[in-house]
Amino acid sequence: MDNLYTVILAAVLPPFALMLYIWWKDKNRREPFGVMCKGFSYGILSAGIALVIEILLSLWVPNDPTNFFQAVWKAFVGAAMPEEFAKLLVLWLFLRKNPYFDERFDGIVYATCVGLGFAATENIIYLFDNLENWQSVAVGRAMFAVPGHFLFAVCMGYFYSAVYFGDITWRKRFRVFWAPVLLHGIYDSLLFISNLNTMWSGIILVCFYVFCFKMLRYGRRRIAEHLERDRQDERLFGSE
Q1: Residue 196 main-chain phi, psi, to 5 deg
Q2: pLDDT tens across 111-136, in order?
């Protein structure tokens, strides 16, 4: 029983730590932590929705890709599209009547709560599917998968807020869903291709690490951009 609690803690702690990080970044007007936890629970719901969609798509998606095309197909159609759709759906349900969604950065805050709830659920599934070596799986997912879902959510929240607060161009609306799908799909594609055990696997794995670094920088820029816009709005509001 003690080991069971340890596995669950190892699955939930990294997403929860990143949720605390994004809460700490929101220094201007922090969101109520209880509302953020509610967003986290919506992320758990999104994992269930995504699982249903993935089961429905399983007839058209290979379980174990054997070539480049199958790896990319599974990454985008079998993972990125259904998972990001489920996250966006519950994010919309969560924010459509949320009175605390009144700043651009709030979109990133709540999107990451949803994404991290999804990541925590996925972590629990993966760790209990690999109980014999759950420690190594937990470390690997804490270093890559959980930050990955966090950064996909930063991207979604950035464009969601951009549209919500007035930038209703078709490009921004398009990117609310497709930008995180692109990041997620490339992330998974590189992983799946590196697991094909070809002569290119080592190079593809290096490309994966470089992509993760680039995605981290991208996410940090998006966070800084919305924080700065909110500060500018606050100064303008205070000067009236």
Answers
A1: -75, -10
A2: 999 999 999 999 999 999 999 999 99
Token readout for 217 is 């920088």
Per DSSP, 131 falls in state G
- Tokens 């919305």 correspond to 226
For the entire predicted model, the pTM comes to: 0.94
DSSP 8-state class, residue 30? P
Is 33 a residue whose pLDDT tops 90?
Answer: yes
The pLDDT of residue 190 is: 97
What's the rounded Cα separation, in Å, for the pair 211 and 23? 26
Instruction: Measure the CA–CA gap between 49 and 83, rounded to whole angstroms.
Output: 8
Q: Give me the sign of the Cα torsion angle 34, 111, 87, 90.
A: positive
Please count the CA atoms within 13 angstroms of the CA of 53 that sit on its side-chain side: 18
Cα–Cα dist 154/232, whole Å? 20
Which tokens is 166 given? 């007035």
